[in-house]
Design goal:
Length: about 60
């Protein structure tokens, strides 16, 4: 029982940290007006997983 509570607490703390990081990233994106194209990020990650060299995607302005 105690172990289950510890696991649930750890999971809740991890989720809270994830949400806080996401909100911070959103605030930075809104303030900067830049972001990354999903297709470029996906290609970058796929290429990295394959062990091939690849340049990081560059942030682009999404504001008109």
């Amino acid at each position: 029982m105690v172990q289950a509570i510890e696991q649930a607490t750890a999971a809740a703390e991890l989720r809270a940290s994830f949400v806080a990081d996401a909100l911070t990233a959103r605030e930075r994106m809104l303030a900067s007006g830049t972001g990354f194209l999903a297709e470029e990020v996906h290609l970058y990650l796929k290429t990295r997983i394959e062990g091939k060299p690849v340049a990081r995607p560059k942030a682009k302005s999404w504001q008109a």
